[in-house]
Amino acid sequence: MLKTRRHLLGATALALTLGPVLSVHAADAPLVLGFSQVGAESEWRTANTASIKDAAKQAGITLKFADAQQKQENQVKAIRSFIAQKVDVIAFSPVVESGWDTVLREAKNAKIPVILTDRAVNVTDPSLYVTFIGSDFVEEGRKAGRWVLDWAKKTVPQGEVNIVELQGTVGSAPAIDRKKGFEEIIKADPRIKIVRSQSGDFTRAKGKEVMEAFLKAKDKKIHLLYAHNDDMAIGAIQAIEEAGLKPVKDIAIVSIDGVRGAFEAMVAGKLNVTIECNPLLGPQLMQLAKDVKAGKTLPKRITTEEGVFTADVAAQELPKRKY
Ligand code: GYE
């Protein structure tokens, strides 16, 4: 009897000491964030991935990272696996805009908040995600368009101005919006026409391949190339040079992102201008994940601030670039 009592007392004492320890531990347990990345298609994406991984480490967040290799089905699988693992927060950069309703509803039913990073989705029910952090891609397209309007006025004072366009991934928010913003601005000058437009899937290899096809057609003079990202422009520069033409001199080139490779191309005189799109979203994303977990109300849309860099400032800007 005495023995049993001592045992009971011992157990109570143990529970008393461990109780607070255990609950403190639970509150301090690192937040688990499941992140589904688009892929590794561009310099921009590489910088974005590095930013997210570094920021998670800095913030003491346990990151479960999945690379979807530019395939929506892989992203859906990754999100389902995050739900099964009961992560605290899910974040993802959706490769395309549509087709997310079902899986996001599953996350909502499991009470796991979702943060969109970089690219937007097209869903009927906006409550399927908490917030979206990323660039204003329509505005980036407009910035490119404004530069082209001005350039056309100065450089091609008369006659038609023929543009070829390398679009990003078909159905992706940046491809849709960068086209839209650009067209909205260039229509102010009826001489300017997009004579060819095709997707180069945001990669150098495809950018080069599609530009080769554009150049082979030879039915219309090409005055300018508008590429939805720097990597496709860099691929296209190779195609232009291999065709015996001079980038910038024979064909002006405008692209988007502002990655190091674009600054190097500008310094080498092979690219006219890049419109900045900031990939360093990691630190803000980690803060948002913590805020959402803490139950704070967040704005539905958080837009990053960006600039425009022309070749004449490239050499001076290059050492300051962080990606
Ligand atoms: O511009 C491109 C990348 O979604 C903003 O994706 C991003 C785009 C970026 O592949 O280089």
TrEMBL record:
InterPro entries: Peripla_BP_I, SBP_2_dom, TAT_signal. The keyword Signal applies. It is found in: Cell envelope. Belongs to the bacterial solute-binding protein 2 family. It comes from Roseateles amylovorans. Residues 1-26 form the signal peptide. This is ABC transporter substrate-binding protein. Keywords: Signal. It comes from the Bacteria. Its main location: other. Residues 34-296 form the Periplasmic binding protein domain.
